[in-house]
Design goal:
This protein has twelve helices and 16 strands. With 388 residues, it is α/β, with parallel strands linked by helices. The strands form two sheets. Strands 1, 10, 11, 12, 13, 14, 15 and 16 form an eight-stranded mixed beta sheet that branches. The relative contact order is 0.17.
């Protein structure tokens, strides 16, 4: 039976391996339905960005709503083509010749980061056995984000071509433009970015077939302004009716759909109690340290809010492998299960086996029965095969 900390989740926490990422199909479908509605109302086509969420066991469900995937290189492109289907889009800051040969087997749309990369590969693409629609990623030079680490428009950015570097001659043969500037942002930031994009690059749009608005759209967040998003896209399409508009969120697909279930292994004391878990910030939820942010735990509160406060630390030897300070109604005990929320996106795709710590299992919660199904477990071979 679930204890008080585990109530209200709608699944048996004890049925999960530990640690484990657990994706709830009902919550995933809720997000997909919203995205499907945005597609229908706006006329845009929405792609799943594999860099954010690539749990391919869920793709039979996801592809009922979305038109394809977008990749950051050869392996993501292959995964999208082989496990999702539909359209496969691909962008990388730079391709090698070997990687380009692989990408051309799978990609339908290909966005280059610079005119130099376009010039380097345009003849290769012209001779490819299948048609690929090519575009260029551009930099609107309009920053709207608050975290410099995630700002592609920051001064000195390597991502995207600025308007001053672009000429009509360089655009010959290209069919689309792609900008990606947002990170966990609302549609007002898209509207401002789109205005900057049209100011700098609008004179090229008449000769194109598509524009990709990139990712970072937090469409499935409760306070996201969907009405504004639909209006912005429809107004853009009215101004440029010949263009197909793409969005490629990764986080919005899996936002608030999953958990990380873990177990308390030990409790030590150093200026307060510290609970050591069988998971890790640096290996299993690196955005906690990179972003940084403090993930929520079911039944826990802020430090001092509840009767018993603990620092929660990971299992690796990194001194800074600390998730944060949390309070609980009752003292933690060795063997207690803790459930971190919103752990589907930018977790599984970013895990490492640093220190030999094993990757969390991957589970799904059935939408109807609410039973937990373990999709994959990991062991020694997964660690060993990353090395030589």
């Amino acid at each position: 039976m679930a204890n008080a900390r585990e109530q209200g989740l709608g699944f048996d926490v004890q049925a999960c391996p530990s640690p484990a990422y657990v994706v709830d199909d009902a919550l995933l479908r809720r997000n997909l339905e919203r995205l499907g509605e945005v597609q229908e109302r706006s006329g845009a086509r929405i792609l799943l960005a594999l860099k954010g969420f690539a749990m391919w066991d869920t793709f039979p469900l996801v592809r009922r709503y979305l038109v394809g995937t977008t990749a950051s290189g050869q392996d993501e492109a292959r995964l999208g083509a082989e496990t999702f289907g539909g359209e496969v889009h691909c962008y990388s800051p730079a391709f090698t010749e070997e990687e380009m040969r692989v990408v051309l087997r799978y990609a339908d749309h290909l966005s280059f980061n610079s005119p130099g990369q376009w010039r380097r590969f345009r003849e290769t693409i012209a001779g490819a056995p299948r048609r690929v629609s090519c575009g260029l990623r551009v930099n609107p030079e309009h920053s709207t984000g608050s975290v410099p680490l995630y700002d592609p428009c920051a001064p000195g950015s390597r991502l995207g071509t600025r308007a001053a570097e672009l000429t009509p001659e360089l655009m010959e043969g290209l069919e689309g433009l792609h900008f990606h500037t947002l990170c966990e942002q609302n549609s007002d930031d898209l509207e401002a970015t789109l205005a900057a994009f049209e100011t700098r690059f609008g004179h090229y749009l008449a000769g194109l077939a598509w524009v990709n608005f990139g990712g970072g759209h937090h469409i499935t967040r409760d306070d996201y302004d969907v009405e504004r998003l639909v209006r912005v896209i429809r107004d853009f399409r009215a101004r440029h009716p010949h263009l197909t508009v793409y969005l490629e969120p990764g986080e919005a697909i899996a936002l608030n759909t999953g958990y990380l279930v873990c177990t308390v292994l030990d409790i030590v004391d150093n200026d307060g109690p510290i609970a050591i878990l069988d998971t890790s910030a640096t290996a299993h939820m690196p955005d906690v340290l990179e972003m940084p942010y403090r993930p929520e735990i079911i039944g826990a509160g802020e430090p001092g809010e509840k009767a018993h406060t603990y620092r929660l630390g990971g299992q690796t030897c990194l001194a800074g492998d600390v998730i944060g300070r949390y309070s609980f109604d009752a003292p933690l005990k060795i063997g207690d299960r803790l459930v971190f929320t919103d752990m589907a996106h930018y977790t599984m795709v970013k895990t490492t086996t640093f220190n030999g710590i094993r990757l969390p299992s991957i589970c799904r919660i059935d939408e109807a029965s609410r039973q937990v199904r373990t999709v994959r477990t990991f062991g020694y071979v997964d660690y060993m095969q990353r090395l030589s």
